[in-house]
Design a protein that fits this description.
The chain is of the alpha+beta class. The chain has two domains: 194 residues, 2-Layer Sandwich (BirA Bifunctional Protein, domain 2); 39 residues, no CATH class. The protein contains four helices and twelve strands, in the order E-H-E-E-H-E-E-E-E-H-H-E-E-E-E-E. The strands form two sheets. The chain has a seven-stranded mixed sheet, sandwiched between helices. Strands 11-10-9-8-12 form a five-stranded antiparallel sheet, with no helix packed on it.
Length: 247
């Protein structure tokens, strides 16, 4: 059953509001949407620039039983697949929680969407996963800080403008589908195949938290990033990933 929808012209953080609703017993599918966030937050306590023209949304989900690292990846894969097909964009998933838009060379891929998942107790769901999703739908490049303008992509194009309201239902559906994928063992194979197809950086060298870790091989079954260096494979479960781009 779909939950309630709250909309704000401006709010400090849709994620903080949705967490409060989840703790109070909000139903699965409850969402908080904002035109602008004044204190948006991302993973690892990073800020999230939230100018007008983007979609800023947090949705309450029934927290899946699988390892927590899989939900943001599953959601990223669902988003990349659905948005890519709907709007004709080549999109990929960057471990552990970003959606990238592939650009024409020599440009590196640019960030189109980010995902943040918090797990909190819920009197209705037992445990709720609150998925915060920010999509750069159609913000003006000048609305971002100067250091971000060359790193972000927009979903809209000059020939097919897209508005945040058109994307909202698709994003919520992708979030619900991703959580339900992880509840259903028979759907895990399809999910892992989708992640293998969409994972960005396979074969490229990578750094995590500024340290070179080797070449990206893929993902483990529990959503860790698998890298290889000197014939030795290693699973990475947390950190800030940077993919070394070819020039």
């Amino acid at each position: 059953m779909a939950g309630a929808r709250e909309y704000y012209e401006e709010i400090p953080s849709t994620q903080d509001r949705a967490i409060a609703l989840a703790r109070d017993g909000a139903a699965e599918g409850t969402r908080v949407v904002a035109r602008v966030q004044s204190a948006g937050r991302g993973r690892l306590d990073h800020g999230w620039s939230s100018p007008p023209g983007g979609l800023y949304l947090s949705v309450v989900l029934a927290s899946p039983p699988d390892p927590p690292t899989l939900l943001p990846l599953a959601l990223g894969a669902r988003l990349a697949d659905e948005l890519g097909h709907r709007f004709g964009r080549a999109l990929r998933v960057k471990w552990p929680n970003d959606v990238l838009a592939l650009e024409d060379p020599p440009h590196a891929p640019r960030k189109l969407a980010g995902i943040l998942v918090d797990r909190v107790p819920s009197p209705l769901l037992g445990w709720a996963a609150v998925a915060g999703i920010g999509v750069n739908v159609a913000p003006e490049p000048e609305a971002f800080p100067p250091e971000l303008r060359r790193e972000v992509a927009r979903l809209s194009t000059a020939t097919a403008p897209v508005r945040p309201g058109e994307v909202e239902e698709l994003v919520v559906a992708a979030a619900l589908a991703a959580a339900r994928d992880l509840w259903a063992p028979e759907r895990l194979g399809e999910l892992h195949a989708l992640l293998a197809r969409l994972l960005y950086g396979v074969g490229r060298r990578a750094t995590v938290d500024g340290q070179t870790v080797g070449r990206i091989v893929g993902l483990t079954e529990d959503g860790a990033l698998e890298v290889e260096e000197g014939g030795r494979r290693m699973a990475i479960r947390t950190g800030d990933l940077r993919v070394v781009e070819d020039r």
